[in-house]
Design a protein that fits this description.
With 241 residues, this protein is α/β, with parallel strands linked by helices. The protein contains nine helices and six strands, in the order H-H-H-E-E-E-H-E-H-H-E-H-H-E-H.
Length: 241
């Protein structure tokens, strides 16, 4: 059996060459469902790049942290929402097509920088522009003011999370009850907020949200307010008014 399936047309052609018989696509689909098989798009994956031992260790350590009643474990990550490059899913009548305009307008993006708690409640900072280490430090400092017990922040190894300036703040945050836990590289499955970003982009945001920056910002803000608190960074305060 081939590791990767051929296209339906290729499969039909090969069957014809081997057996001398032709079948239609509908017949091929019926046969595929009996096995069961379906024609799907493959997804890019970086799993082969990660250290599987480090991944399993982090998985076990997180499981232990989540058992501690005196700890609040939250997941932290950034996600960019842009007017170009995102094609959401949606229900359409058979045979109908819905286009999403690509404006490519300069500055037509917003950065969501958020914390997700175990109960699904989020605290998201919306920022326009590049997310630097200084931006992340400012947000971590502000988040420290909101915690009520010792809190572990789970985050990846992005450069703004591992810079010298960021590391210089870790001890200060720890003194305020905020502990930092870095995931091993290429371990997005261990950071639950990444699933939230994907769901927002491809499922919860309607097609109309991607037509211009104002609708993008307003819709994103509304969706995030449904599940938590939204804070506008200075870079977006004028846009939010």
């Amino acid at each position: 059996m081939r590791r990767y399936p051929s296209r339906p047309a290729t499969v039909i052609a090969r069957l014809r060459a081997r057996t001398g018989k032709s079948i239609g696509r509908d017949t091929l689909r019926r046969y595929a469902k009996r096995f069961p098989l379906s024609w799907k798009r493959f997804r890019r994956s970086l799993r082969k790049k990660r250290d599987e031992k480090a991944f399993r260790l982090a998985q076990d350590e997180l499981a232990e942290l989540l058992k501690e009643p005196e700890l609040d474990v939250v997941y932290f990550d950034e996600a960019g929402f842009s007017l170009k490059g995102v094609v959401p899913y949606g229900w359409l009548p058979v045979g109908k097509r819905r286009d999403v305009p690509v404006t490519g307008a300069h500055g037509s993006n917003v950065q969501a920088i958020g914390f997700e708690h175990q109960d699904g409640h989020t605290q998201t900072y919306l920022h326009k522009g590049y997310v630097s280490t200084d931006t992340v430090i400012q947000i971590m400092d502000d988040f420290c003011e909101t915690i009520e017990q010792t809190t572990v922040v789970v985050l990846d190894n992005a450069s703004c999370h591992t810079s010298h300036a960021f590391k210089a703040c870790v001890e200060r945050w720890a003194a305020r009850g905020l502990l930092v836990y870095h995931l091993p590289p290429y371990s997005p499955e261990l950071n639950s907020i990444e699933r939230l970003w994907k769901k927002l982009k491809y499922q919860l945001m309607p097609a109309e949200a991607w037509e211009k920056f104002s609708t993008l910002l307003n819709t994103l803000t509304s969706k995030l307010c449904d599940i938590g608190e939204v804070i506008f960074m200075p870079s977006l305060e004028s846009c939010a008014q």
